[in-house]
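Researcher: I'm preparing a figure for a lab meeting and need a structural model of a single chain. I don't have an experimental structure, so a prediction will have to do for now. The sequence is pasted below. Please return the structure as C-alpha cells so I can convert it later.
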Amino acid sequence: KATLSEVCVDNLRPIVISAADYNLGAINPNPVTANGTDLPFSIAFDGYVEIRIVNAAGNVVDIPISGDMKAGAYSIRLPIEKLSNGAYILEMVSGEFREVRKFNVVK
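Model: Understood. Here is the structure written out cell by cell.
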C-alpha cells in the first residue's frame, strides 16, 4: 500500500488540494412552488462556474450563476419567478465537474 505525503518535497510546504468538494445540492421541496427554494452548492477549486436552467425542450431558459468563483460552499435562490409551470433540469458545470438535478415548478 502506497501512501502520499502532504508535504511538497521540493520546498517542504504543505500541499492543499481543496477543503471543499464539488456538489450540487438537492432541490427541496420538489416540486418548487411560488415560495421558491434555496439551492446549496459547493466548488472544490477556484475557477469558472455555470449553473443553468434547461426546459423540457432542451433550451437554456436562465443562467443564475456564470463566472469565476472561489472554492467554497454557496447557496442561491432559484429564480422560479421567471419560469412557467413544468419540468426543468438544473445543470452545474465547473471544470470537469458536471451535475444535473431535475425539478418541477408548480405555481
